[in-house]
Amino acid sequence: MGKVSASTPAENSSPVVLSVEHVDKVFRLPTEQATGLKQAFINWSRGIKGYKEQQVLEDISFQVHRGDFFGIVGRNGSGKSTLLKLISGIYCPERGKISYSGKLVPFIELGVGFNPELTGRENVYLNGALLGFTSEEVDAMYDDIVEFAELGDFMDQKLKNYSSGMQVRLAFSVAIKAQGDILVLDEVLAVGDEAFQRKCDDYFAQVKKDPSKTVILVTHDMSAVKKYCDKAILIQDGHIVVSGDKDDVANRYTLENLKAAKKDARDSKSDKYPTGLNERVPKLRAYPISSPVCSSSDIFRFDVEYQYDEDREFYLAIAMHDTRRGGIVYDTGSNRIKLRQSGHQIAHFEMPLNLFNNGEFRLVASLRTASRERPDAPTEMIAFTNDENSCVFAIRDSRNSEYALLSDRALRIRQVGVSQV
């Protein structure tokens, strides 16, 4: 790889430390195997390549400036990990140019290069050598690595005697404490136990404040993108579809995931009526009117389209499912919604979101009828929306937590006293 000059673009006063210009990457996938030189010659003479080409990345261009915390996101198979391997020099592009300045330290997979028969200390020096550091440079980093991993009493034990959590802590500590100018991380934020994750969180908060350190992060965690990154790109089918604002990138990624989930559900259906629908109720679907990616301060608006032609009393029930944490967050239950117009109709609804932290949710609607014989009996469900025709949406708000469902702004437990025993 070449070295990029310390240019200073007008839009950013910091020098460019990584430049990716019109990069393509193609993999050759074998379609048949020549068993010998003779067969290979025959295939060649007949114009048989014996492989097909798969375009993984096409015309990828972006720049990273010194001090950036730069995110690369995309669904599985989009090409983002291939891009990181190109940046790290593991792959070479078919077309285009990748150049950087300074010491680039790649960590594509934690623990790659660790030897279980060597001690923790020996593995630190081995990893350092693989990353291009001299023994003297590893000497300077060693104490920081051990202190961060909290493994001081175990560094002279063989790695095979470490628990999986200890190995992860050591690998991650080598990754982030390596004294490089550009740190390349692939899906390595959620490591270790809760206490270690808090320590990592504090570390990245410090890195964000260091103008000399540049971090390139590949992750599926959009909360990490919004929390850490200054800029980001979204890769889809080998192309950059969004570049720049981290919130735009994170929200678009969430939206693409929601669309993909609905497509997967739709592709799995083959009956005359989708699951949940029937001849009595051939249409019933819930869908968003508001943006499917909302903040907690939004009022979420959605519609329910239905078709029901019978001349009898009927109702709509709506349940809100938490697809990340599991369970039903809210159900209209006894507050069933009486529908007054039969036929093919669209009912309009809205719901405040200020109670909730970040998450992904699904609104499932069911159409119900009252018993003719016993008006006071529970209603009977005759149709419901499946995964494809339910309303999916996500809440993304920087003020929110990712863990619990309810926001601290909606519910807070406060101490009212203490008694001595």
UniProtKB/TrEMBL annotation:
Source superkingdom: Bacteria
Enzyme type, top EC level: hydrolase
Protein keywords: ATP-binding, Hydrolase, Nucleotide-binding, Transport
CDD domains the UniProt entry points to: ABC_KpsT_Wzt (cd03220)
Record EC number: 3.6.3.40
Family matches, as Pfam families: ABC_tran
InterPro entries assigned: AAA+_ATPase, ABC_transporter-like_ATP-bd, ABC_transporter-like_CS, ABC_transpr_TagH-like, Bact_Polysacc_Export_ATP-bd, P-loop_NTPase
One Gene Ontology molecular-function label: ATP hydrolysis activity
ATP-binding as UniProt keyword: yes
Domain ABC transporter: 37-262
Gene3D superfamilies: P-loop containing nucleotide triphosphate hydrolases (3.40.50.300)
Cellular compartments per GO CC: membrane
Entry's family note: Belongs to the ABC transporter superfamily.
Protein name: Polysaccharide ABC transporter, ATP-binding protein
Species for this entry: Bifidobacterium actinocoloniiforme DSM 22766
